[in-house]
Structure formats: C-alpha cells, structure tokens
C-alpha cells in the first residue's frame, strides 16, 4: 500500500473510532450502533473491526442492556468479526450489572473464553474497567471458578537500550530536588493545580499601566458584565437552534456527523469557554491568528474537556489522582528514592502494589483523541456562532454611562483576508471591532485571562508513563508536538510502538520536569518598572506601539497611480511594523504578568517533545527557553552551597554572558572578571540605573545583571563557600550540530574546529571560516575581481556566523545568500551590489566549510540520498529510531489531489479538511532536505537525555535549552563530566551503521513500481496473469526492474560513509567541548 492509501485507511478508522466513542459517551448509542451496522453491511468493507464493535459493547454494558449485547454479538458472528478479550470483558460487565447473571450463562461465556485461548485471569489487561466494576466481574466469574483471581500483569520497568544497560548499576546520590518536606503543602498545591485545570482558565493581575480612573474602569467592567449576560442568552439560544437543525440533519445519516461532538461537553461549560474566546480575541483587535489556527485551538479545548469528563465518569480519573497522591507522599519527599528509581518506575511499581490499572488505560484503549479534521470542524462551527451572535453597542464604549441600545448593536467580530508576505497565499484572520477591543481593554486593564496550559504547574507534573499519560494532572497532554495533518499517524505509530522503547525519553522528560523554579524578584521588579515607563528596545523590553517612531503614511492630494502604489507599500510596511511591535509588547506583558503572579510561589514546567525528540516546556509564554529576559527571571527553587568553585563559576558565567571573550581561556575569563569585580560587576549590582551601567552593554543584559547581583550577594555573605545559591549556570555546546557531525565522521580536522579535542583556548569555527574566506577573497582581489575588491573589510564573524551555524541544519544556498545579504546590509554595504556580493560570499563560505568538515559533508550527502530514495522511490516518510529508541517520523506533506472521504458528512468538511488534510501526499523534496538536520537534532536530544538521566542519578539539578545545559554553580564540574561521558558513549555506538540497518529493514523491500501495479490489474481484469501471454512479459519485465531498483536501494543504504581516525576519548579532556 502507498503512503497515501495507508493514511486514508488509518484516517477512516480513527474517524470512525472517535465518532462511535463520542456517540456512546453522549448517550447516542443507537446512532453508533446503526452506523456500525450500515458500514458492516458492505461486503468488501475492511474498515470495521472488532475494536469498533467493542465500543458499542461497552456502551450497552454500561446500561446493563443484555439483549442489545447479545444482538451486537450476533451481528459480529454474521459479519465474521471474531471477539477478543476486550469483547468478553464488556459482555461479562453487562451480565454483572444486569439482572440475568445465571450461572449456566456465565459458565458458557467462561468456557468460550478458554476455547479461544483467552486467559480469564488477564481479562483486565485488555480493557480498562473501573475498580467497582472489576470487583463485580470477579465475583461473577467466581460463581463458575471459585479459585478465580485477577492477575495484574505490569509492563517491564527497566530499560531495553544498549546505552542504558548498566544504568541501574551506577552509584546514586540522594537527590532532594525541591527541598520541600511538608507533605500537606505539596498536597495543597496539587489541589490548587487540579482546581485551575478543572476551571479551564485562570485570571491574573496584569502589570500594564492603568491610565483611566478607578471609577471609569468600574463603569467599563459593569458594561462588560451586562453584555456578558446578553451574550450568554444569545449563545444559548443560537446553540439550541443550531444543534436542533444539526440533529435533524443527522438523523437519517450514517456518515460521521458533527452533532455528537458538539454534545460532548456540558452546555454551560461550552458557553463559558466561548465567553473566554470572546475575551481573548477582543484583546488583539487587528492582531489575530489565522482563523484555522483559532478553530484548531478552540476545538482542542473542547476535546480536552470531553476527555476529562470521560475519565471522571469511567473512574480512571480518581485512580490516576490516587496514584499521584502516593507519588507526592512517598517519592517527592524521599531524596534517596528520587535518585534510585525514576518517577516512571515508582509509579509502575506502585500500580502493581495497588492493582491500579489507570496508568495502563491509554494502552488498553484505542486513541480517544479526535482526529484533527474533527477538532478543526468543531472549532469552526463554534466560531461561526460567535461571529453571528456576539454584538455590542459602540456608543456605550465611547460613553459607558449610557444604556445599551438594542437597535444600535453591531457585530463584535469579522473576518479579513491578507496576503502572506513573499507568497501568493491568502490568510483569513478573525478580527475584533476596534471599539470592541477598546471596551475589552478598559474593562479588563487590570487582569488577564489564560488557559491553564499557558501557566506553569503549581505542583510537580504528572510523570510521563506513556505517550498518553503524563504532563498536567487532570487534562491530557500531548507527548509529541506534531503539526497537522500528521498527528493521527504519529499517535498510531506511538500506540503500536513498544512502550519500553519510550522509557529513556519519558524518564528524561520527568527528570527535567521535576525541577522546581522560583521567580528572580529583583530582576522582575526592575523589568516591570522599565516596562511600565515605556520600555527600552536596547534592553529587550519592547515599546508600547503608541511610542512607535515611524511616521504614519499620508496620501498626497490628487495622487497619481505611482503615488498610490507607493502609499500602499508604505502603509503595508507601517501596519506590519505596528503589528510586530504590538505582538512583542503583548508577549512581554504576558511573561511579566505570569512571573508576577508566581513571584512568591514555587512552580514547575511540564515538558513534552517535538517529533525529533527535542524537549520543550509546555507553557508557552513564561519558561526558560525564552530569550535573555525570560531566562533572567528564573531561579532554581532548591538552592545549594556554592562550595569551593561555585563563586568562580559564577564569575566565568557572567563573562560568558557578556560574550566578548569567547576566544579566551577560562582562566583568562576568570582573571578578567576579578579585575572588573568592583568597578563593573558590583557597581552594576548596586546601581543598575544610576551607576556605570556596564551590564547594559552586552548581548544578554538582564542575565548579566542577575548574575552580578548573585555574585554580590555571595561575596557579601561572609563565607561564599557556604552561600546557598539558587542561580543557574549555563554550559553551551560549541556549534553542537557540527560537533555531532565531526564525531559521526571521526573527523580530526572538524573535531579540532568545534572543540572535541583538548586545546589551551577555545577554537572558534566562525573565526576560522572568516580566515579561510578572507584568504580566498584576497586571492580574487589580486586578480582584479570587482566583487572581491568591494568586500574588503566586510568579511567579519557576524556576517557569516548564521550561515555556518545553519549549514549543519540544511540551509540552502538561496537561504544562505539571504542571511549574508541581511548582514551586509546592516554593515552598510551598497544596495546596488548586495546580491552579487552575497552570492560570492555564500559560495566561498560553503567551500570553506567543505574543506574544514569534509567527512561531515560526505555524511550529509549520504543522508540526503537515503532520504531521497525513501521519499521518492519508496514513497514513505523518512523514519528512524534514535539511539534511545524514540521513533522519529518526518511530518512533511502536501495537500491531496483527491476528494474527501465517503465517511464524512458535509458538517466536517470545508476548511477543516483543506488545512488539516488527512489524505495529504508526501512532500518528497522537504523530506529529503530536512532529514540531515533532523537526524542531527535527534542525536543532540539523545545526548541531552542521557545527561539528564545520569545527573538525576548523581543527585544533580539539570535542565536544558537544547544544547545549553543548566545546573547549580557548585555542580558544573560534575555535570560537565557526565556530559562528556555520555557524548562519548553515544558516539561509540555504530550510529550510521545502525541507521543503515534500520533503513534496509524498513524500506529495503518497500519499493513501489506504479507500472507493474497497472499491468497486473489489467491482467487480473482480463483473466489469469499466468495464462495471459500478452501481459506476462510486461509483468516479468517490471518485476525484474523492481528487483534491480531494490538492489540499488539496498546498496545505497549499505554504502555508509567511511570515517576518520579521531579518538573520541579525547572529548573527556576537552575543556571547551561544553563551556
């Protein structure tokens, strides 16, 4: 089957699965049953399977409808659907809950189980049933077998990974990750987190300046409240009318319809969520996301609430919270246990002790999440209601003392269309009326409302145990961030994949996620002060859009056609600039307001991954992955004494942040820090605004200031060695992507350039490239080449840095030329010759990198060729397992050229299918060009994960920003040792050979010849292929061609690039590998 055929079938099954589940859950089980019967009636239908019948059986069992259970079973027999263990679990549940539980009937079912080789004692390994219903079934079975008992069969808890085979034998150090001993405090924080998640949103105080008087703000707040009451009634009536129409439309339809999905959550909760959307969208006015993104986000909110209500109803919610309470009580307050076992291992062991099946519910059930085209369709429908029904009186905004005039109401929202920059694509945006935005701003100027997932956790996150269990406490979180429309395939792939292979990745997410944080209040107060006074772009605090310096374009009187064109260009540029300023200002407002909300609290960041295995905090606005300002606002909640070298590391760290001594040794950086300690560092700490302001003149001003203040506190503590520091110190990889390439190719020259081998001073690959390129330019200048002469003095580190950095990530020559052109423009190079100069420099930069990293270039070419074969010849997405076992599948597709599927009604069509095309084709060029950088990213994530696991084992606080590792000043040396050990261990594995074997196993036989398929179909239509003399030679020819192509494919996969003679063990002694 082709990639598109596989996706079509998977998409149909997931769509039907979600539809049947929702129908059963909202009490429309007859609709589900009739849909199933209709689809099963097609003779050649291979869509319906036993899993779909089990959904209906479960629904009848909950209702104790034995007659319907029997009828469903008869239909299964009629359609040759064999029951499995899950089927029998629900059949027995129906009898356990119903009046007819005669011993003879149960005995017959029990014997039928054994006849089909289904072990009754492992019945609950195949279907999640809550504890009360499990006891009922157990009592029922004991009627026919008094010795019967449920045998809990847990998953293995240890790793199945070569890199971690000796992990449990590694000595461990007790790890008090939070310093919190008060269990009641932890439990109270967990209760607060559950409250926030159940409420769905939280309102916090805004740090923005309030310009109106309290009396005026109160009038606007009352006006908003009045309108809210009107909107509630309007939305209630509109939803009643719309859902009634949808219900009638869906009554005689056996296709997947939107109606059950819209009934999946309580009506009052639905209206509450819609009111939240009104407030959110009103705050942006002219600065909205695309409508499709809004539809997807809102549909996802509806689905999340549905899944939470479903878990509360089936009992898994309470079981999950019970085991989380054990986790807080026994694990989080036990430093010895934290280092000895991972959070996942503890939860799995505790589940065995308590027979808690909830942690395996996600494994026992099909994917419950709705397909993305359904999610978007739900959001689209509800946004349509908002667009029609939400109205306001503009006159009351101008004068809030006036009463609302119902005849004067206008729509609060509208849609607008914009051309996406540098493309011919049109984007539709959801916009708010400017007066409506003003009303929202005035009514809520002192508060901001956020969805729970936008904020950090108030208690330790729920440990990740599988791809569908972990993250937030009550609501489901996504383990893997996958863009539409590929999410369904990722979910299915993870479901099929052995969960044990995920253990290293899950444990790493848990190790990073259990690190608690606090806000650096000193820095927060300074930033809020600057933000409220108008901002400062030089200090990365954005200006309010009202302080925009650009002049508003003005149309000339009696303009010519050229004048109009010029005005439109200037107006577009001006509007874009305003949008960018407002976006930056709003982002900063959110970050500072959230930080201020948590200023006196401890909090945690739950993490997940992208499709390559790179880790990210889930809350988007306030986390340590942000830029300078975001990082400066954060401190570790658990402090450690600085010890003998901690103060030195703080001093080195402040110089690293300044960024002016990257080519100097650590000793030189420390000496320089000591030389400016009193003049600059302590002056900055004591007088940030009125002193010499040294901290402002560098790359990372706020982090520098935060570090200056920490150094000052440590020195003035009296005994710096005993000073308890909460400050994180960073260690950055030296052009980490090229480090992995050099290690893969065992390339001595490349390894020297990126500090894989010991050196007295750090090597700067960018400066080395500049030297080579400048040498080439001088030679060309001597020959009289004009462009070489013009570039004299312009070939600098900053000009080529981005290109060198992104070469490893697959930047094209066109992209590199744009990067270099931007830098040359910033340096004042002539606009007339900018493109020829950029093209010249791009060529020379690529040539110099090829000289320095010849092995890396060979490896990159081989990866590209393999990806081309997989995507273009085998017509499959490029996929591989990382060294830790995480399955990576590249999600690059194009919209399909075929029509939508027969299963869907028109209510789930439209833009839901255009933008989230479940039948999308592979984007073969993107699959090819993206593979080398994605493979390298999967290696750097594996290295980070290994480091995080061993740091937890050694009792070291560790978090990361990809290839930037954070820890306490006192544990930098230990972390550096672990970091190097794990890099050596990772690259000591035959990574390229393993990748080659994976490709041969996955794609070596998966070769598609369209012509052969066509000929065989023609032969089948006209008679036997063996007797049809006209088609037999063609079939043989194409089969021979197919075998030849398969041989070439296998040969290319086996043609692993040769490597050099680099001694990887030298990395252990390289001071500047990470520094």
Summarize the structure.
The protein is mostly helical and 1075 residues long. A three-stranded mixed sheet has the order 9-12-13, with helices on one face. A three-stranded antiparallel sheet has the order 11-10-14. The protein has a three-stranded antiparallel sheet with strand order 17-23-22.
* Terminus-to-terminus distance: 50 Å
Strand tally is 23
Helix proportion of residues, in percent?
Answer: 55-70%
Structural class: mainly alpha
**What's the story with the biggest beta sheet?**
3 strands, mixed
Form type: globular
Low-confidence stretches: 911-916, 1008-1017, 1023-1027
Order of strands across the widest beta sheet?
A: 9-12-13
Strand content: 5-15%
What's the rounded overall pLDDT mean?
86
The Rg value, from CA coordinates, equals 32 Å
- Helix count equals 42
